[in-house]
Task: structure prediction
Amino acid sequence: MKQKLNYLKLTLNLDENIRNCLQALKEGKVIIAPTETCYAIVCDASNKTAVDLIYKLKGRDAAKGISIFCENSKMIGEYAIANKTAANLIKKYLPGALTLILKKRSPFKLAKNLSKTNSIAIRISSNRFIAKLIEAYGKPLTATSANLSGKPEIYSGKEAMKIFGKNKDVLIADAGVITKTPPTTIVDCSDGKIKILRMGKLKIKV
Result:
């Protein structure tokens, strides 16, 4: 059976999966793919049009902003200011289920519509597919859950197809059903202090 143009069944051949997704990113499409928590919508975080599409697909209020995936601490430092507190958290907990809110580095070299404030939410994924995709692409990707705003997160490619599969600018990277996992812990350390905004899978003591 011919594979649908907006559907990719993830296989054990990671290199082939990455090649297909790289092409979609270069074309300005968004990809719905598994992470260590739930399925997420990822796109080139420097592509304003693709980021706008994510807001539209999710029905998300632009004032809420969209977080990003980075490959490593070096990439984080290209786009945000990792103070001493942030650097310690990065070293101790990342890659993993932690999102850090940091001050943007000026000039900010990613899409301006990711955040309307002077800060940006960043994480480093421990999911092998996401990590390899960012490494191959060489730039940050968006890191927002693949659900309609106000609705539960999704944990299967089948659910993703039902919600987003009709859009030609969406590629569903289907890894089947993934384990339901609590969301990331969100820590605002933009001012050098630890402020826990959401306690998720990762437990941090202040």
Q: What stands out?
A: The chain has a mean pLDDT of 95. The CA atoms of residues 103 and 138 lie 21 Å apart. The chain is about 30% helix and 20% strand. Helices lie at 14-26, 48-58, 73-79, 84-93, 128-137, 157-164.
